[in-house]
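Lab notebook, design round three. We kept the backbone fixed and only want residue identities now. Task for the bench partner: fill in a sequence for the structure below.
Input structure tokens:
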């Protein structure tokens, strides 16, 4: 199928100063599950590329380049949230841009109405 192998939603345990920081922390919180799923599938004989879809280009830069791409507004972010950078450099994971309008994860986290709700429902249920 075309669906996600693993999906979850949870409240963050810390306050953040920007959406970039929020998304970076969210990725860090889920990296353990992402890598476990990748290694499990490889052990079963499946070589599936691990792709992280991101709709925040600032977060993508920080994920790919780590602290090197920090600005005045993001200098305070703790180094522990850059584990994803190591995973990208080891090629365990790739990050790709996905426009907000196509971000399937929004279905479970944002109130959607009308056509967008129906389109996302269709994608989740693998309907054409």
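Proposed sequence:
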């Amino acid at each position: 199928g075309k669906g996600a192998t693993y999906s979850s939603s949870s409240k963050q345990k810390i306050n953040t100063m920007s959406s970039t920081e929020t998304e970076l922390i969210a990725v860090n919180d889920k990296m353990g599950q992402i890598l476990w799923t990748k290694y499990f599938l490889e052990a079963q004989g499946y070589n599936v590329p691990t792709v992280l879809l991101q709709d925040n280009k600032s977060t993508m830069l920080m994920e790919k380049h780590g602290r090197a791409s920090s600005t005045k507004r993001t200098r305070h972010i703790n180094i522990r949230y850059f584990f994803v950078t190591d995973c990208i450099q080891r090629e365990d994971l790739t990050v790709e841009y996905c426009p907000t309008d196509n971000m399937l994860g929004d279905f479970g986290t944002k109130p959607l109405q009308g056509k967008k709700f129906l389109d996302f429902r269709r994608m989740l249920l693998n309907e054409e």
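Keep this in mind before ordering anything: Strands lie at 51-54, 94-97.
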